[in-house]
Amino acid sequence: MKRGFTLIETIMGLFIFGLIVVTVIPITNGTINNLYKQKIKTQMIYTGEMVIERLKAYDLDTSSELFIYDVEISQLIEEFKGNDYIEIEFEKEEYELPLKIIKENKSDFLWSIKVIVYNKGGGRLDNVEFKAYLQKK
Question: What is the number of structural domains in the chain?
Fold first, then answer.
């Protein structure tokens, strides 16, 4: 009656186990990396949508204090009123996602607002851009 494994069986088992590990680890690493990129991209989209929606929702008479990062929206609107074309950048170190707001006049009653959200960490993620038209306030 034979008990246990021979040396050849043990070496073959370790070899097969090594092949499986060498195959699975890069796949797992790539999956985790893609999940992280997707998380950052989702945060970028959320930030851009938040900026556009806050600008659209602002009403001088009824709006309470709304902010984009640490800038009050009423200050942005005042800068928008004074310029036909303006670029406002939010790139402080404490901002997780830097962004740029570009405003230009399209007509006497309409503003074109473009929000570009940048990936602070670099990498291969593209910037996220949103464009909206607002009635002049």
Answer: 1
